[in-house]
Amino acid sequence: MKNFNRSGKSCPIMCISKLLLIMRLIVCISFMLSFGLFAAPSYSQDAKINLEVKAETVKSVLKLIESQTNFKFFYNSDLSDLDKKVTVSFAGKSISEVLNAVFAGTSVGYRVLENNFVVLSSAEMLQQPVI
Questions:
Q1: Bridge partners, residue 86, by sequence
Q2: Given CB 3.0 to 4.6 Å as the disulfide criterion, which of 32, 68, 70, 125 pairs with 121?
Q3: pLDDT per residue over 53-108, tens digit each?
Q4: pLDDT at position 85, please?
Q5: What's the sign of the alpha-carbon dihedral 114, 115, 116, 119?
Q6: Percent of the chain surpassing pLDDT 70
Q7: Own/partner pairs for 58-61, CB < 8 Å, 24+ apart?
Q8: Worst-scoring range by mean pLDDT, 38-47, 73-82, 91-100, 120-129?
Q9: pLDDT computed for residue 44 by the predictor
Q10: Per residue, what are the HEC states of 31-60?
């Protein structure tokens, strides 16, 4: 003898339909959350840097940028142009504008990576394709 609920359906069929409904809801919520993560603006595009430095080395300028922002710089300390003294003044500028001015007239290039990492190297090395 089968167990019938008030609607006249047997219990296993009702349990399966509830399970399918729950699975559909989970899939829909997962899609909405994942698309929301991709739509979030990245920090590197929105970060504005205010900086005023007189006759400081490029290394110290990079440390100041790290202290003001979420950017982290990776470089070989043997790069000779990092000891060059620079005088710069910026208000509300992007990281690209600041680094272009700081490294103007040097052989140092940069690449801004995901998660706000900035890799510094010779400009020739950065032009080679990444494998």
A1: 56
A2: 125
A3: 888 888 888 898 888 888 888 888 777 788 888 888 888 888 888 888 888 888 88
A4: 87
A5: negative
A6: 76
A7: 58/82, 58/83, 58/84, 58/86, 58/102, 58/103, 58/106, 58/108, 59/83, 61/86, 61/88, 61/102
A8: 38-47
A9: 54
A10: HHHHHHHHHCCCHHHHCCEEEEEEEEEHHH
Tokens linked to 69: 């922002």
Tell me if 123 sits within 8 A of 108, measured CB to CB: yes
Residue 45 scores a pLDDT above 60: no
d(CA 16, CA 37): 32
- How far apart are the C-alpha atoms of 71 and 10, rounded to whole Å? 61
pTM of the model: 0.59
Which tokens in the block code for residue 53? Answer: 């430095």
Residue with tokens 């710069």: 88
Q: Side chain identity at 61, as an amino acid letter?
A: V
Q: What angle do CA 93, 97, 100 make, to 5 degrees?
A: 150
Q: What one-letter code names the amino acid at 20?
A: L
CA distance 46 to 66: 15
